[in-house]
Amino acid sequence: MLNLVLPQMGIGTRNARASNWWENGDFSGNLFSGADDYILDFANNSYVKGGVEIANPIISTHSSDILALNSSGSYEAFAANVSPITDLGLLVVPTRTNIFLNSDVPASQTVAVSDGTQYTISVVGSGSIALSGAGLGTATEGSDLTITTSGTSLICTISGSLTYVQVEQGSFATLPIITTGSAVTRAGNQEVISGLNLPIGVEFYMVVDLLDASTLWRKLIFFTSNGGANSIVAGFGNLNNYEVASRSAGTVTFIEMFGNRGENIKELVGSFGTDYGQAYIDGLSPTPDTAVTYPPLNKLFLGTNHTGGEANYIYVKEIGWRTGFTPDTTSHAEMVTLANARA
């Protein structure tokens, strides 16, 4: 059985950060005093708009329960349409289905799979699960197994004392989806702040913890005005890479990718000026992308991509943005320093 904290009592049970670091703690001056400036510090349950603490403004949409890990190693359960926030941050997950039955009292069984499809098997406990039939290999705790099926019947044979098994379609394992007598689908979540009116001249930072080791990029729709077009996109990949992209008329133009920082926590600093975008990390600026005109941006969008595709699988620890600047290296020095410190 998994170590669950039920029911989820809400993030209000954790104390918000006491010191107002954005005003006079770690940095001189108030960097986020503008009316449309935000800091969303999910990991510390502290949210700031215009230099004043507010209630969490994020609205969550997901149609099923989500389990999210906290720093004590327990899973907290979040009902449909409740943001999965623990002291590790805001969890953003893709839609996945666990096809292994009675997952937290596991027994050997044969599961039906699609031929020629990637599946990942993950387990908890002191034993192992050996595959035969449509796939071969062995999974143990901490050593997930990803296979491409050859056939439609996957035989799962358990040895030892496993307490949980998950078999899901995809190239990496996600957090638990508990099943009983039938497969269970966990819907991916969307986390949104609507009603923003951000003028051109937005700079932002993100601090995240990437959970999967996939080679695929997992993008966050960051700021958007009208869906796919005229958006700002930020994304994270494995090997601690980053990207920022602009999207105009449905076409993504990549601005820059950043290399390995050599640590698990990742920071990204970016900006979008009058008619172009730039991204900075550690004070380094790439060449601006092709000129594009952005309208005022009206939404922050995290999670399942509203234009299709899998969501990121990350904990978003903190996001902050401020408006009304002229993008240059001097302007970004504060934000780069801040992002590094907050990570």
Secondary structure: elements and pairs:
Layout: E1 4-5, H1 21-24, E2 38-41, E3 46-49, E4 52-54, E5 59-61, E6 66-69, E7 75-78, E8 85-86, E9 89-92, E10 96-98, E11 109-112, E12 118-125, E13 128-133, E14 137-140, E15 145-148, E16 153-159, E17 162-169, E18 184-186, E19 190-193, E20 202-210, E21 218-226, E22 229-236, E23 242-248, E24 251-258, E25 265-272, E26 277-280, E27 299-303, E28 314-323, H2 329-342
Parallel strand pairs: 1-7
Antiparallel strand pairs: 2-3, 2-28, 3-4, 5-19, 6-7, 8-9, 9-28, 10-18, 11-16, 12-15, 12-17, 13-14, 13-16, 19-27, 20-25, 20-28, 21-22, 21-27, 22-23, 23-24, 25-26
| Estimated helix fraction | under 10%
CATH topology of the largest domain: Jelly Rolls
Distance between the termini: 33 Å
The sequence of SSEs as H and E is EHEEEEEEEEEEEEEEEEEEEEEEEEEEEH
- How many β-strand runs? 28
Oligomer: single chain
Largest sheet: 9 strands, antiparallel
Structural class: mainly beta
Describe the structure.
- With 343 residues, the protein is mostly beta strands.
- It folds into two domains: 18-62 and 190-342, Jelly Rolls; 96-186, Jelly Rolls (Sandwich).
- It contains two helices and 28 strands.
- It has helices spanning 21-24, 329-342; strands at residues 4-5, 38-41, 46-49, 52-54, 59-61, 66-69, 75-78, 85-86, 89-92, 96-98, 109-112, 118-125, 128-133, 137-140, 145-148, 153-159, 162-169, 184-186, 190-193, 202-210, 218-226, 229-236, 242-248, 251-258, 265-272, 277-280, 299-303, 314-323.
- The strands form six sheets. Strands 2, 3, 4, 8, 9, 20, 25, 26 and 28 form a nine-stranded antiparallel beta sheet that branches. The protein has a seven-stranded antiparallel beta sheet with strand order 5-19-27-21-22-23-24, with no helix packed on it.
- Strand 21 (218-226) and strand 22 (229-236) form a beta hairpin.
- The two termini are 33 Å apart.
- The relative contact order is 0.17.
